[in-house]
Amino acid sequence: MIKRIRDEIIATLESLYGQEKCGLDFGTPFELLIATILSAQCTDVRVNIVTKELFPDYNTPEAILMLGEKGLVQKIKTCGLANTKAKNIILTCDRLLSEYGGVVPKTLGDLLTLPGVGRKTANVVLSNAFDIPAIAVDTHVFRVSKRIGLAKGNNVLEVEKELMKNIPENKWSQAHHWLIWHGRKCCTARNPKCVNCALGSICIEGKKRLKAT
Ligand code: SF4
Predict the structure, then answer these.
(1) HSE-up of 43 (CA within 13 Å, CB side)?
(2) What is the distance in A from the centroid of ligand 1 to the CA of 192?
(3) Protein residues whose CB sits closer than 6 Å to any atom of ligand 1
(4) How far does the centroid of ligand 1 lie from the alpha carbon of residue 5, in Å?
(5) 1 pLDDT above the threshold of 80
(6) Residue 62: CA atoms inside 13 Å, Cβ hemisphere, count?
(7) Is 10 in contact with 171 (CB distance < 8 Å)?
(8) Could you tell me the domains of the chain?
(9) Strand, coil or helix: what is 3?
């Protein structure tokens, strides 16, 4: 991608979504880790409703282990995939206590050793809880990046690497939010609003779609 176009895309996204933050409510790295695990195939709004009830009493590995897997399933059942998520959260709490002194680790490698934690979750925690530059590639980031032309990869790891190359490091964490919000508000999976999109004249997919109308 030509640098001038890339810079224009990044500047446009920043002007549109510069104030947007992580959609999950959290007060500690542990809370964000749990909220992000719960957010798989679930909306941030729903997760926030669940964690608002859960975290006042259960926001440490010890407290969640005391609650137990069955108790946790009941607390998180409206997030979907409750059995799998509860199992992973219990195993993660166990590992945090046995390997990391009950503290959420600050490296990608360590975070990836936690059950139920993939690159997306790990990068969300690194960037939002620890201010460590990272780009978490979720479904919105994957789709929007490829449509715009910021990435061409066929899997999340390839897209993550391309975005890290195409976006200045000091904007990685924010760019993740910009792409998510653009995907939610404008570049939706079905029927993206190319006609009204601020990137319509420079987006690869947008130019194709606009020409075809
Ligand atoms: S022009 Fe269309 S495809 Fe491109 S980012 Fe905008 S909405 Fe998405």
Answers:
(1) 5
(2) 6
(3) 147-148, 186-187, 192-194, 197, 199-200, 203, 205-206, 209
(4) 14
(5) no
(6) 3
(7) yes
(8) 3-20+135-212 (1.10.1670.10), 29-130 (1.10.340.30)
(9) helix
Token pair in block for residue 48: 């926030």
For residue range 107-158, list pLDDT tens digits in order.
Answer: 999 999 999 999 999 999 999 999 999 999 999 999 999 999 999 999 999 9
Per-residue DSSP letters for 95-159? HHHHHSTTS--SSHHHHTTSTT--HHHHHHHHHHHH--------HHHHHHHHHHTS---SSHHHH
Answer left, alpha or beta for residue 79, where phi above 0 means left and psi between -120 and 50 means alpha: alpha
> How far is it, in rounded angstroms, from Cα 50 to Cα 77?
9
The verdict on pTM exceeding 0.85 is: yes
Give the single-character DSSP code of 40.
T
The shares of helix, strand and coil residues in the chain, as percent rounded to the nearest 5, are 65, 0, 35
Res 127: pLDDT: 96
